[in-house]
């Protein structure tokens, strides 16, 4: 008997309609999602996300179409009523590379490059019972339940940059209280 397939949520951490998706033909892990709040970008197939929105030159308008030119590697976003906008995927933004969550194996999370101070929160799912995430990015506590736990951590920097990372944590034996 074969195992039943199961779906894992790899959505951007935003409660907005997702209108269009584009996958970079040069890198199948590079995913762009047009939403009502801008464009979310993932370099790792949906495990972590970066928002390109009003802080990055896009207007505050729904994005209904995304096209990637396979020859020039330029991405064009078509918005509702605000025009078309071009992103050169070969260029690094003036603010540096997109903010990324670091520390997959560390109890203290960090972000780079971004602009401190950072504020951390759980955007989806839940930490294992008994653990907490502080606004500074510290995970602390003692797990009180065994199992596999999936949660998404969201970090915001002082300039409005947002990034997220989804974690899958296995707690083999929990401390009973």
Task: Give the arrangement of secondary structure elements.
Blueprint lengths: L17 E6 L7 E5 L2 E5 L5 E5 L10 E6 L5 E6 L4 E5 L11 E3 L7 E3 L6 E7 L5 E3 L5 E3 L5 E10 L5 E10 L6
Total count of helical runs of at least 4 residues: 0
The CATH architecture of the largest domain is Sandwich
Given the C-alpha coordinates, what overall shape results?
A: globular
Which strand-content bin applies to the residues?
35-45%
N to C succession of SSEs: EEEEEEEEEEEEEE
Structural class category: mainly beta
Helical content (DSSP H or I, runs of 4+): under 10%
CATH superfamily of the largest domain: Immunoglobulins
* N-C termini distance: 38 Å
Describe the fold and architecture:
This protein has 177 residues and is an all-beta fold. The protein folds into 2 domains: 71 residues, no CATH class; 72 residues, Immunoglobulin-like. Helices cover 0% and strands 44% of the residues. The chain has no helices and 14 strands. It has a 7-stranded antiparallel β-sheet, with no helix packed on it. Strands 5-6-7 form a 3-stranded antiparallel β-sheet, with no helix packed on it. It is globular. The N and C termini lie far apart (38 Å). About 7% of the residues have low confidence.
What descriptors fit this protein?
177 residues, 2 domains, Immunoglobulin-like, mainly beta, three-stranded antiparallel sheet
Summarize the structure.
With 177 residues, the protein is mainly β. The chain folds into 2 domains: 18-88, no CATH class; 100-171, Immunoglobulin-like (Sandwich).
